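Pipeline run #58 for the internal structure catalog. This entry was flagged by the ingest filter as a single-chain record with no existing model, so it goes straight to prediction. Upstream metadata was stripped on purpose; only the residue string is passed forward. Reviewer on rotation: M.T. Logging verbosity set to normal.
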Amino acid sequence: MITVNPDGKIMVRRCLVTLRPFRLFVLGIGFFSLCFLMTSLGGQFSARRPGDSPFTIRTEVMGGPESRGVLRKMSDLLELMVKRMDTLARLENSSELHRAAGEGRFALDRLPAGPGLMERIQAIAQNVSDIAVKVDQILRHSLLLHSKVSEGRRDQCDAPSDPKFPDCSGKVEWMRARWTSDPCYAFFGVDGTECSFLIYLSEVEWFCPPLPWRNQTATRRAPKPLPKVQAVFRSNLSHLLELMGSGKESLIFMKKRTKRFTAQWALAAQRLAQKLGGVRRDQKQILVHIGFLTEESGDVFSPRVLKGGPLGEMVQWADILAALYVLGHGLRITVSLKELQSNLGVPPGRGNCPLTMPLPFDLIYTDYHGLQQMKQHMGLSFRKYRCRIRVIDTFGTEPAYNHEEYATLHGYRTNWGYWNLNPKQFMTMFPHTPDNSFMGFVSEELNETEKQLIKDGKASKMAVVYGKEASIWKLQGKEKFLSILNKYMEIHGTVYYESQRPPEVPAFVKNHGLLPQPEFQQLLRKAKLFIGFGFPYEGPAPLEAIANGCVFLQSRFSPPHSSLNHEFFRGKPTSREVFSQHPYAENFIGKPHVWTVDYNNSEEFEAAIQAIMTTQVDPYLPYEYTCEGMLERIHAYIQHQDFCAAPGPAPPGTRAPQSPFILAPNATHLEWARNASLAPGAWPPAHSLRAWLAAAGRACTDACLDHGLICEPSFFPFLNSQDAFQKLQVPCDGIESEMNHLYPAFAQPGQECFLQKEPLLFSCAGSSTKYRRLCPCRDFRKGQVALCQDCL
């Protein structure tokens, strides 16, 4: 049986009796009138509300004194009506006559003196009627005025024919058919009318000319740039650790690394500050978007941090964040798509519209995943602001893969290329691709006391294997060379496992499991040898081992690994051939710290082990991988690299009034003439240029290295002329300009010289037996190949 609370019964009965018909009538009129006024006149109370579309033609019908008086009177009447309705609502129903009479008289006594209750209700109804008449008059006046304005501007909303805006009419046609395809168009005020199309295409996008009848002061203007603030070196990284956030294992790893290197960053900042002296450094506002850590990209790295997964990318990103922060720049860090959209000002929709505001960042550091996300959500703003983007790209992107049209036509298109950026906007982990900028990372730098302690504590017969994942130990033939190594040294591994020893690891290997970074460093400090199995390629661990006094032994690849014969490189935007597991260690460090041998040749391998056991090495770290070296390099990039304001090169074949080149005394190459004026704004400085004609089949990267120099692609425009060939005494029977990443070059046979037609295709990489390439080279600072002698 259901019971009912007596108090509840009384409450319901009171409500039903209280809301008598005439009170419902008055309440309904009041509510209806209020809603009508809000919806009809809400847009008239101000000329522009914050959320209004910039394209709404708002007629100022409420601007005069009479109109304002009407609104005030209407507002006062509504307020009085609401107060009286509130008073009436408090009266009790007539079923409780005695108490209701007393309370009712008390309530009525509080009403202002005047006619009775019914008369007041009639007066309210009459006032509402008067308000409706006034509203009707105002709306009629507004519609009449709006129709006159529209009639007068109808002929001004046709797509203009302006040769400066050739795409305008086509874009208007597109908008007619597709403006509803993305909600962002409605967000910017597009409503299906011709005028809204033209206003959008002229004021939000830039395909149509400004409309003369538009109030140009109302259109969006870029805010005045903030006054420039001088960047000041920082030594306390606690705020950076807060900016990095938490919640992901990858971020936790990066923060631990940054915290561990705090003292070294602080010391490096002091040294660089002394080196730069009084050089003014403007503080940049920088967005760092780590795309591969976003959920939208899959974030395959974070779950593997504690399971032996690759850490190279996280090592590099942690060091990039630290370097930018220590240099004194303003940082914003995002690791989610939502954060990215919020910081960029992405409008709601599907990403076809430009940003809602000018980009508030001078530079954006991201990766290929982040680059793709920005392109999807920035609309036309991506094309406008892409010159500010720097792409952290481990293995590099060669110009032939970067140029979309050329890559498509000549078979260089991959999943990661065709962005049409300046190739120097791609920043690599090692300086293997001069067409890109070398970003790098840092390793721990030891003082002399620490170095001596390491040398004294070395175990001469201890080796550590490079490979934390069991899959790396599946290399065929490893038992053969590991058994040889086992005759001379005790072998240690750091392979991740959960409960059982990985079967891929031989029984004679002492496996420590996955070690935290500090414990792994201690293991390296004891070991004599750090041996690689051929994978992973170009990671940070070999440099860390060498910095801790180990000899690094690696496999020589024959034939070299590339996208043509190895799955790992397939699809990457580079044709680079890799001759060993770590080409930088082989080419820039070498013996006695690095030994590269053929693991398939047992005699060569065993001889190398015997020689290493008798070789004494000190801990060694190249300057460019110290904290100071990385700060120096990134400072130079921020200070001098400007891909937005850089002037375009002269058309191919254009001759300067006076050639800046002279033939070197030994007649082997060109040099910048001492009396020639320097190219304004050129960086690296043009006087560091040395131009060589490479042998047939030789890439400019290798041709410059043959002479102890570095290929410098920014110098190509200076050489892209017939004058350069003539100065080198090259017999050109003909001159042609074409799109080819090997040009400028001299063709044999045929005696024909070819110039580059597309500046984005200037490339240090690439070779052909048909061509002798004209190569721009430069000097470099000791231990810092990214910078020339005068680049600071």
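catalog note: Residues 661-778 form one domain.
catalog note: The mean pLDDT is 83.
status: ready for reviewer M.T.
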